[in-house]
Fold:
Amino acid sequence: MEIHRYEKIWFAAALVLIIAFIGTVAYGAVGAGIQMIDDEGGTIDPDEWSEHEQFEEGLGVFESDENDIDYEVTMIAQHPSFNPRDVTIPENSTVEFHITALDVIHSYDLVGTNVNTMVIPGQIAQFTVDFDETGEYLAICTEYCGERHHEMEGTLEVVSEEEWEPDEMLDNGGDG
Ligand code: CUA
Structure:
Protein backbone atom coordinates (compact mmCIF):
# COMPACT_ATOMS: atom_id res chain seq x y z
CA MET A 1 0.00 0.00 0.00
CA GLU A 2 1.27 3.38 -0.92
CA ILE A 3 1.03 6.02 1.82
CA HIS A 4 1.32 9.55 0.64
CA ARG A 5 4.30 11.49 2.00
CA TYR A 6 2.13 14.21 3.58
CA GLU A 7 0.00 11.59 5.22
CA LYS A 8 3.14 10.09 6.78
CA ILE A 9 4.11 13.52 8.10
CA TRP A 10 0.69 13.95 9.68
CA PHE A 11 0.87 10.48 11.22
CA ALA A 12 4.22 11.36 12.74
CA ALA A 13 2.96 14.71 14.01
CA ALA A 14 -0.11 13.08 15.57
CA LEU A 15 2.09 10.47 17.24
CA VAL A 16 4.37 13.14 18.69
CA LEU A 17 1.35 15.01 20.07
CA ILE A 18 -0.08 11.86 21.67
CA ILE A 19 3.26 11.05 23.30
CA ALA A 20 3.58 14.65 24.50
CA PHE A 21 0.09 14.57 26.02
CA ILE A 22 0.79 11.30 27.79
CA GLY A 23 4.06 12.81 28.99
CA THR A 24 2.37 15.87 30.51
CA VAL A 25 -0.26 13.73 32.23
CA ALA A 26 2.40 11.39 33.61
CA TYR A 27 4.48 14.34 34.81
CA GLY A 28 1.46 15.89 36.50
CA ALA A 29 0.66 12.61 38.23
CA VAL A 30 4.08 11.65 39.56
CA GLY A 31 6.71 14.22 38.61
CA ALA A 32 5.39 17.25 40.49
CA GLY A 33 5.45 15.58 43.90
CA ILE A 34 1.69 15.50 44.12
CA GLN A 35 0.25 13.16 46.71
CA MET A 36 -3.40 12.40 47.05
CA ILE A 37 -4.99 12.34 50.47
CA ASP A 38 -6.16 8.79 51.06
CA ASP A 39 -8.37 7.30 53.77
CA GLU A 40 -5.43 6.69 56.13
CA GLY A 41 -6.75 9.33 58.55
CA GLY A 42 -9.88 7.29 59.19
CA THR A 43 -13.41 8.33 59.93
CA ILE A 44 -14.87 10.46 62.72
CA ASP A 45 -18.30 11.34 64.06
CA PRO A 46 -18.56 15.14 63.66
CA ASP A 47 -20.86 15.38 66.70
CA GLU A 48 -18.37 13.60 68.93
CA TRP A 49 -15.14 14.72 67.33
CA SER A 50 -13.49 15.69 70.63
CA GLU A 51 -13.77 12.11 71.84
CA HIS A 52 -11.89 10.71 68.85
CA GLU A 53 -8.43 9.45 69.85
CA GLN A 54 -6.76 11.81 67.42
CA PHE A 55 -8.47 14.87 68.94
CA GLU A 56 -8.62 13.89 72.62
CA GLU A 57 -5.72 16.15 73.52
CA GLY A 58 -7.42 19.11 71.93
CA LEU A 59 -6.63 21.28 68.94
CA GLY A 60 -3.26 22.77 68.11
CA VAL A 61 0.35 21.66 67.83
CA PHE A 62 1.60 18.65 69.76
CA GLU A 63 4.90 16.85 69.98
CA SER A 64 4.55 13.53 68.24
CA ASP A 65 5.57 10.21 69.70
CA GLU A 66 5.93 8.70 66.24
CA ASN A 67 9.56 8.24 65.16
CA ASP A 68 9.49 9.97 61.82
CA ILE A 69 7.12 12.80 62.83
CA ASP A 70 8.18 15.77 64.99
CA TYR A 71 4.85 17.49 65.55
CA GLU A 72 1.21 16.78 64.97
CA VAL A 73 -1.37 19.44 64.21
CA THR A 74 -5.02 18.80 64.96
CA MET A 75 -7.50 21.22 63.48
CA ILE A 76 -11.18 21.51 62.80
CA ALA A 77 -12.84 23.42 60.00
CA GLN A 78 -16.26 24.87 60.70
CA HIS A 79 -17.81 27.68 58.72
CA PRO A 80 -16.38 30.30 58.71
CA SER A 81 -13.13 29.45 60.51
CA PHE A 82 -10.30 27.06 61.14
CA ASN A 83 -9.57 26.18 64.73
CA PRO A 84 -6.81 26.86 65.52
CA ARG A 85 -6.72 29.73 63.07
CA ASP A 86 -2.99 30.33 63.34
CA VAL A 87 -0.39 27.63 63.66
CA THR A 88 3.26 28.13 64.56
CA ILE A 89 5.86 25.42 64.14
CA PRO A 90 9.66 25.37 64.28
CA GLU A 91 11.73 25.04 61.12
CA ASN A 92 13.28 21.73 60.13
CA SER A 93 10.32 19.79 61.37
CA THR A 94 8.15 17.10 59.91
CA VAL A 95 4.53 17.77 60.71
CA GLU A 96 1.58 15.45 60.42
CA PHE A 97 -1.78 17.18 60.06
CA HIS A 98 -5.15 15.80 61.10
CA ILE A 99 -7.99 18.02 59.93
CA THR A 100 -11.70 17.35 59.93
CA ALA A 101 -14.82 19.38 59.17
CA LEU A 102 -17.81 19.64 61.48
CA ASP A 103 -20.46 21.00 59.13
CA VAL A 104 -19.88 21.06 55.38
CA ILE A 105 -17.01 20.42 52.99
CA HIS A 106 -14.13 22.86 53.40
CA SER A 107 -10.52 22.75 52.32
CA TYR A 108 -7.15 23.63 53.77
CA ASP A 109 -4.89 25.23 51.20
CA LEU A 110 -1.50 26.59 52.20
CA VAL A 111 -0.84 29.16 49.52
CA GLY A 112 2.58 28.75 47.91
CA THR A 113 3.01 25.12 48.99
CA ASN A 114 1.66 21.88 47.60
CA VAL A 115 -0.63 21.50 50.62
CA ASN A 116 -4.22 21.64 49.45
CA THR A 117 -6.72 19.16 50.75
CA MET A 118 -10.46 18.87 50.93
CA VAL A 119 -11.74 18.62 54.49
CA ILE A 120 -14.86 16.50 54.66
CA PRO A 121 -17.24 15.94 57.60
CA GLY A 122 -16.86 12.40 58.89
CA GLN A 123 -13.32 11.97 57.60
CA ILE A 124 -9.93 13.01 58.86
CA ALA A 125 -7.60 14.46 56.24
CA GLN A 126 -4.14 13.25 57.24
CA PHE A 127 -0.95 14.32 55.53
CA THR A 128 2.67 14.99 56.36
CA VAL A 129 4.70 18.04 55.39
CA ASP A 130 8.39 18.91 55.90
CA PHE A 131 8.97 22.55 56.80
CA ASP A 132 12.67 23.23 56.27
CA GLU A 133 12.70 27.01 56.11
CA THR A 134 11.16 29.81 58.10
CA GLY A 135 8.29 31.68 56.51
CA GLU A 136 4.65 32.51 56.83
CA TYR A 137 1.95 30.97 54.71
CA LEU A 138 -1.63 32.00 54.24
CA ALA A 139 -4.13 29.21 54.78
CA ILE A 140 -7.41 29.48 52.93
CA CYS A 141 -10.54 27.47 52.34
CA THR A 142 -11.02 26.86 48.63
CA GLU A 143 -14.36 25.03 48.78
CA TYR A 144 -17.41 27.27 48.75
CA CYS A 145 -18.83 26.54 52.20
CA GLY A 146 -21.32 29.32 52.93
CA GLU A 147 -21.86 33.06 52.88
CA ARG A 148 -18.69 33.77 54.89
CA HIS A 149 -16.49 31.38 52.89
CA HIS A 150 -14.25 34.28 51.88
CA GLU A 151 -13.44 35.00 55.54
CA MET A 152 -12.23 31.50 56.17
CA GLU A 153 -8.50 31.85 56.47
CA GLY A 154 -5.58 31.44 58.81
CA THR A 155 -1.81 31.35 58.87
CA LEU A 156 0.93 28.85 59.26
CA GLU A 157 4.15 30.36 60.50
CA VAL A 158 7.43 28.49 60.46
CA VAL A 159 9.82 30.10 62.96
CA SER A 160 13.46 29.43 63.76
CA GLU A 161 14.20 26.84 66.41
CA GLU A 162 15.39 29.62 68.79
CA GLU A 163 12.16 31.55 68.40
CA TRP A 164 9.97 28.54 68.87
CA GLU A 165 8.28 28.30 72.22
CA PRO A 166 6.46 25.21 73.25
CA ASP A 167 3.65 27.40 74.60
CA GLU A 168 2.73 27.96 71.01
CA MET A 169 1.45 24.46 71.19
CA LEU A 170 -2.20 24.29 72.14
CA ASP A 171 -2.71 27.67 70.53
CA ASN A 172 -6.46 27.47 70.28
CA GLY A 173 -6.80 30.66 68.32
CA GLY A 174 -10.47 30.27 67.51
CA ASP A 175 -11.70 32.54 64.78
CA GLY A 176 -9.99 35.65 66.32
CU1 CUA B 1 -14.72 26.76 54.31
CU2 CUA B 1 -14.99 27.83 52.24
Observations:
- The first strand starts at residue 60 and ends at 63.
- The beta strands are 60-63, 71-78, 81-83, 86-90, 93-101, 106-110, 116-119, 125-131, 135-140, 153-159.
- The pocket of dinuclear copper ion is lined by residues 79, 106, 141, 143-145, 149, 152 (CB under 6 Å).
